[in-house]
Amino acid sequence: MWIKASGTQLADALEKDIFVPVDLAAMSSEILAHPERADEPQRYLLQEGGLKPSIETCLHAVFPKRVVMHVHCVNTIALAIRTDAVAELGKRLAAFNWAHVNYAKPGAQLATLVRNALTDTVEVIILGNHGLLVAGDSVEEAAALIEQVSAALHADAAPKAPVDSARLQDLAGDNFEPAQPDDKVHQLAMSTARIEKAIGGTLYPDHVIFCGIGAHAASVGESADAYCNRIKQIPHFLIVPDAGVLWRKDITENGRTMARCLSDVLVRVPDDAVLNYFTQAQDDELLDWDAETYRQQMNA
Ligand SMILES: [Zn+2]
How far away, in angstroms, is 94 Cα from ligand 1 center? Predict the structure, then answer.
């Protein structure tokens, strides 16, 4: 099986060699018998040369179909983070052979849940607090499914509110700088309901890897320095209510991408929706994970 390498960007696939071959038969037979081995996908690598297979390799290995695509689709996540996800997804996915799988740490644990949810006909899996997984017999078939599911789950973004660049600059202090005025990340700051959802905790795994647990918001009128002194840490980015978002000066590109993802997701979540957040243990198991440490290093 060819799988994307950990720490590489799918967007680079046409210019760079970012896929690596793994022994599919060996891996899929070990997911149940030896999950701790399946969680080290580099054991199954069939070539030398530096790049490691994706952390999510075994998620792809449980499908009988030839092409498996996994994406963190914004429209999917906006529903998959809700406590009423299954009912809301059911209203929109009647035309698909689909199944929902509760959140588990990416890797063998999650792959086992997916395998248990599969039947002969299931071709779409919604991963709770995570994303979308589809399978087909060709690239075209799988790609079309991604498009169709994303369209069926589409939600319009809330209208954009204007950024207060002057206030952001005033409050930024030494550690932060305002995001560019046209950056969509600012919309995180533009409604009280959205801010509360953002700071409530972690909503999906990649966020905690690149941005830490949940998000942070200053109080109205509070400077970034005052906020950091109060909580005794300097978060990757800081929401300034009704003004916009400040980047920590050393935030990584993946950190910015994940903050923008949070904005993309939350502008599609109704104010009255109730969300599922990670427990402390679920945050910790991602932050302590060797495989994720490797991905963070690649990112740095
Ligand atoms: Zn994923």
Answer: 24
